[in-house]
Write a structure and sequence with these properties.
Blueprint (H helix, E strand, L loop, with lengths): L3 E9 L4 H12 L4 E5 L2 E4 L10 E10 L3 H14 L14 E7 L4 E3 L2 E3 L8 H10 L12 H5 L7 E5 L21 E15 L5 E13 L8 H18 L4 H16 L4 E14 L6 E14 L4 E14 L1 H17 L4 H10 L6 E11 L6 H10 L3 E2 L6 H13 L4 H15 L8 E9 L7 E8 H9 L10 H5 L1
Amino acid sequence: MSRHTVYIGIGSNLGDKQANITEALQQLRSQVSIRRVASLYDTDPVGYTEQPRFLNTVIEGETELEPHELLTLLKGIERRLGRQQDFRNAPRPIDMDILFHGDALLDAPELTIPHPQLHERAFVLEPLAELAPNLCHPRLGMTVSELLARVDTSGVRRTRAGLAMRLARDVQGEAPEVSVALSRVGITDVRKVIRLGRARPHSLQAEISLYADIGARQKGLHMSRFSHALDTTVAEAVQEDAPDVESLAARIAERVVQSQGALRSEVRIRAGFSLRRYAPVSGLPTDEMYTLLGIAVCRPEHARRMVGIEAEGMTACPCAQDMIDQHSRERLEERGFQAEEIDAILEAVPTAAHSQRSRATLLLGTQARVRAEDLVEIAESSMSSENYGLLKRPDEFFVVHKAHRRPRFVEDVAREMLRAAVNTYVNLPGEDFLFASVKSFESIHKHDAYAEGGGTLTQMRGQILRQEAHQQTTTLEKWLG
């Protein structure tokens, strides 16, 4: 559909006039892209003069709406903001008129374009001349500036440059009552659609958190600047197709440092994504959901970034299985089975154990490109078994049987993830960072179980590949800086 440049006059003389105009613009943006807004003008009422003075402005915008569709939109906004159908030129909380609609010339009972009284109204021509002084009236053959020069402007007074409030003080920049520095101040869990990938870009629904440090002599941060940095960077990423989630996090972190004048910023992104999986026996296809993680920390002297995933799987408890195994041995001995026979029976028949769903997190701090799919494979293969959204009975048997064949504590899963990652990323620099954590949602306990570990790749390779004695490893917080 073609897009049209439109000019719309907006006025108010009841209630909070500036707030009415602001709300009208907010509703107008649903279907009109507003390019520019003229200054506000305090103006004499026209026609019926026994009423309060008006506040007027004009906007320049772009829309796909045709003239009558745009008129319907404006009338709907007027009704929602409380305008009543009273006598002509009556007081009103909001008044919205189409002045120009592209090159349209329209004469209909309910709508004339250009506006039929436009050339007579100084309260329209003054703000319109700010935006488009050389715009030519197609019927009169004169520019807006020329039309303005022909009318009396004595009842029109410019009040301020725009709709934004003029703030007398910067409250956030003042000294706090308690002089203590804070390490993380910001906004959390902002929902945004992000677009990642260049060759085959895809959109994801994400939750983004942004933080910055704050000095002991500063009362607060400008939270709106966080949102602006986020909106600007996400918009650019949509246009440029950010290659990956960690690069997007790093871009946002850099903008936070610039906008807040901070010494440190931190950005965390969580986004759901799906991978096609197949049930192990039936082969039924299913789209399994995972969480993509991006973390970035930016300082003036350096920046760090991480990519990671969260994946769910299944763990079977080795301790419970060992107790069941011991109990089974005793019962079999009571029934006269020999030790060799008992070993053969228990080898052939899996021993019961309580099992639970577990969530694994795997993070890799590196400048190299890392496939999220590879991180998912490492996490799922480190558990007793993967799980699925759709299973037939033979699939259920396979999953349960597999899990009980390799029971694992959360500690085992965390260590398996670290080992698998070390063996997978053999060419990454030693200063890159690896982190793994697991949370088990216990089935028979009132608590959950948790384990985590990590360090630089040099530290992890030393322990895993060369069995070096354990030394104090770098923490995730220290590596991020």
